[in-house]
Amino acid sequence: MMKSAIALSALIITASAGAPALAASFTADAVETRPGQQLRYGKLTVRDNLSRFEFQVRGKPVVQITDKTAKITRYLSPLSRTYFEVKGAPNSEMDGDFAHASPCPDNEKIKCVKDKDEQLGGFTVEKWKLTAEGIDRPAYVWWEPKRKMALRREFLNGSVQQMIMHGVMPYDRGRNAENWEILYMSPFGRYNRGSVQYDADLGVAVLQNFPNGLSRSLNNVQEAKPDDSLFAVPERYKKIDAPKPRMPQFNQPDLSRFADPKAKERMAAPRPFPKAPAFNEMPEWVKKAHQEAMERMKKGPTYQPAEKPDWVKKAEKEAMERMKKGPEFKPAETPEWAKKAEKEAMERIREAEKKHGVQTPPWVKTMQGNEAGPQGYAGPWGGRPWGYGAPGWGAPGAYYGHPAYRGYAPQFRPAPWFNRPPAPGAAEAK
After folding, report:
1. Which of 386, 407, 411 lies closest to 397, judged by CA?
2. Which of 40, 43, 57, 413 could form a disulfide with 32 if both were Cys (CB 3.0 to 4.6 A apart)?
3. Where are the alpha helices (H) located in 148-283, listed in sequence order?
4. What is the mean pLDDT of residues 319-341?
């Protein structure tokens, strides 16, 4: 009893495989992703119940042609010009076929009867009752005839699938799609969610996301009328036996060796394995790396400084030229006020010499005759001994102590060689 109920539920879930709706003709870029499997993408061409999907397997081209009316799927290999057939539509509906012609599965063991019309989510739907021999409990399908979709399904095991519409939204090049949310409710209270964006004009789902991680999408959708030759097997193609599916639960044949004809030969060819080194023997790749490292150490660092900018080269050249010429020192000219002060100081000194009868040493007169600069003449005792050219001409001088110069530079002592002149009347007293 339980096995029969499970079988009936499975038939209801896959009922759409045998009753497809008439879809529009279009071309699109299709993408399919499955958890733990490679991404599948390629060009999709649809005409009514015929679809052609061009994709690659391990870099090799493969063409999948599906005839939903005849329930046959053909796989073509352009490299080897071979093909094989699989009865029934493939489990991955890359063409976005989400709408179907009838709510009833194409199975003689299942009896499908319309019960009544009801309102569900703002839509007028048809309630269908599905029964099978040997099973007392029926299953139900709420069918929306305009879109040819099952908005609700109740299975024998208590599971429920419910679709809820959340409005219309744009998806590609000005086209609009209905945004549907799918709720999967188990009899134990567990909820899973999925989503579908359905193009009502084309009658296809342009985006599908399932709780198990499966995702399909159609992009760059363009309405077109493709040629019949695209859905036929070309001439000179040889029919071969279909490969066994790697995972039977997905009803997908193993296309890896079919896409690459020489894969079997490469797998059968013996592969040379390198000899394993002994326990105390250094592997060859380690020896090679060690040898290269030793050679680099012998050569030393290969440092190449960056090239100097042009402005640095120009500055260095100008600096070298200035160093060759030497310093260009130009003494400052004595200001007019300093010259005037110097002249007045010399006049006062001469007047004092005449008044007190002081005889200036000849070497001092020689120095007085020179042009004194603003800094004066520096004597061996430091300072500015004559101070004639200084702004303050009363700088420390050699004549400190003479009555005529007393007070000019009180902070310095007189030169050791200088003797005071005798006081008036001292010579007469002798």
Report:
1. 386
2. 40
3. 256-259, 263-268
4. 81
